[in-house]
Design a protein that fits this description.
The structure is a homodimer.
Chain A lengths: L6 H5 L15 E2 L11 H9 L14 H15 L8 E4 L2 H12 L5 E5 L5 H8 L3 E5 L18 E5 L11 H9 L6 E4 L11 H4 L5 E6 L12 E4 L2 H11 L9 H12 L1 H24 L2 E3 L6 E6 L4 H10 L2 E2 L1 E2 L9 E4 L3 H14 L1
Helix pairs in contact in A: 2-9, 3-9, 4-8, 10-12
Chain lengths: ~350, ~350
């Protein structure tokens, strides 16, 4: 504590990222990283860049990368997206923080599930918002009708974390339609592993803002890139904030690497498909071991065993060289969140479980 | 404008970075970039990194880079600095923004010169602070006694921008001593080009926070790295905010490149010395051409001619392929800020001036 900290810093409880222990080599299934490296084309691009140009500022508008992302979605969805509809940030957490600062006034209500990404309550506190947590139902599903006609902003992770369960596009659309004057933020960090993207709603409704990240499906956790897709007016607001906060957030290497990642769509599809296959094989084996496994559309699964307490299993797995994530929180303290690694990673995980159960 | 923007985004005037025109190749003396590339060792490090690891999150604590910076200053100043005294951010603008969010409460007063880095008024507006602008004297110098015993936070760029004039260490120390209960932020973006660093005050006074950047003296504008040095308590506050805003701000490549930059001190000293030499040669020639040149301790100079209006000169130089920075603002609208490039850059600049005057 320092007398110079302001009132907020004195009371805030910061977010706690997944542990990154350095004591030994773990099978690391705790921070939802992609087990596959970035595309070889990305690696080659970085190695062949003229790094002498690092003496010069990057393009503060990040125009080229925004254009590539806009073109990608234009093709994918067969609708026109412009670069003015894309905002790029230093990881999707930065994009989320800037969204809270751009669209929410102090004292506003912000609605999200009681069980969801644990950074939202931190943002709500940091920016003096009134959080309204809407309980997931007994099956950990979002009940969409509870979000209809609310008197505040809405942020929904889809698929939700750490539950892994996705809403369908028409369910999200109902929430959007039933709150025409409220901004609906859809955080799609895990969408590429089996859920439907709400990018399809962006040109149809003016109150949808979709956030995606390079950290999971693009194997780029170590690079820090995230983006938001919305109407040009909404994105302009984010840029107004960015240029009032930090003009040059994306460095030259990240810009070029990000462009290359979007260009190599084959690799992107191949690795995501592989992760989904590994997930389904893993789920099958876990069910045979007596686990309850929620229906995952993500690169992680959320599991519980009726005989062994999740907190104990977490510790025993760690002692055996396998890191998973455990949240000692209401309703989910008997669950583990397990990232889907390679087939080999998951075989080791199952093998350790076999011993520990 | 969008109905979803909050009150602040509707009214704020964002910062305007120096122009980066792409229409033709300019001698670019407008954004205070370093004319020399980063050290070859930095370039080699990036090329030899295992980029496959980009699939994994970087260390959110940025421990290794913070240690290297702490060790560097421990040696340079012959005093012990710990990594807990170093905060690393995504460029020094991000560090500054986070400082405003960590130490200043809404409604607080914040003091800075009437002519200084034009991002401070944007931050003051963004975070609802009361700015108190203290006029520089008629020679564009900071009058330190005007900062004694003030009822608010103080932020001083040293050397100041765009004036290029530095305060001496004992002058800064007097401001620090005369405000023991206020945090004094010293923004040293340009300190390595001839000013004395206030890092020497950090272990002596608990109310000093020094900000430096890789963008200028470390030839890393394209990479985005900045840092703050202060007491462990003060830095802990910044980390509390960081982990409430964006946990992973520094990517894996930036961390390794930043470490390598601090290791190659010979190159750092050599390029900075060269820029200072080029500056002094340029100043001499400009004075011969009838320019008034403020006494620079930076990698830029602030110049005015009694016969030709600075705004016209800016335009004519641009038409002739030389970009400098012009601020159409009170008191400085007959001045140009000119970055020091290579000897060759400055010869072209002088040659064009010779034609235009």
């Amino acid at each position: 504590m320092s007398k110079f900290w302001n009132d907020k810093i004195k009371e805030i409880e910061p977010y706690v990222p997944g542990e990154q222990p350095k004591d030994k080599k773990y099978v690391k299934l705790n921070t939802n990283e992609n087990p596959y490296s970035p595309s070889e084309k990305v690696v080659e691009k970085i190695k062949s860049m003229n790094l002498k140009d690092l003496k010069l500022y990057p393009d503060p508008d990040v125009s080229k990368l925004r254009e590539v992302i806009a073109d990608y979605f234009s093709k994918k969805i067969s609708e026109k997206f412009t670069k003015e509809q894309i905002f790029v940030g230093n990881g999707s957490d930065e994009v989320l923080a800037l969204i809270f600062m751009t669209f929410f006034n102090k004292g506003d209500k912000v609605y999200y599930p009681d069980i969801t990404y644990s950074f939202y309550p931190v943002y709500a506190d940091l920016f003096d918002l009134k959080e309204v947590k809407i309980p997931l139902n007994e099956n950990f599903k979002i009940e969409i009708n509870k979000y209809f006609g609310v008197d505040g902003h809405i942020i929904i992770t889809n698929p939700n974390a750490p539950t892994s369960i996705a809403l369908k596009l028409n369910e999200i659309e109902k929430i959007v339609k039933n709150n025409p004057t409220q901004l609906i933020v859809i955080d799609e960090a895990y969408v590429d592993f089996g859920a439907e993207s709400s990018v399809k709603l962006v040109n149809k409704y003016d109150n949808v803002l979709v956030v995606q990240t390079f950290s999971k499906s693009r194997s780029f956790a170590g690079m820090r890139l995230g983006y938001a897709i919305g109407s040009e007016n909404i994105i302009e607001g984010l840029n107004r904030l960015k240029f009032s906060f930090n003009s040059y957030t994306i460095d030259r290497i990240s810009i070029e690497a990000g462009i290359e990642s979007f260009k190599d769509d084959d690799y992107f599809v191949k690795t995501n498909t592989k992760i989904i296959e590994t997930r389904e094989k893993t789920v099958k084996k876990l069910k045979e071991l007596g686990f309850k496994v929620l229906n995952s559309s993500a690169n992680f699964i959320f599991i519980s065993h009726n005989k062994v307490f999740a907190g104990d299993l977490y510790k025993n797995l760690k002692d055996n060289g396998v890191l998973v994530r455990y949240f000692a929180k209401d309703r989910i303290d008997n669950y583990l969140r397990v990232t889907i690694g390679t087939d080999e990673d998951m075989e080791i995980f199952i093998e350790k479980l076999n011993k520990l159960l």
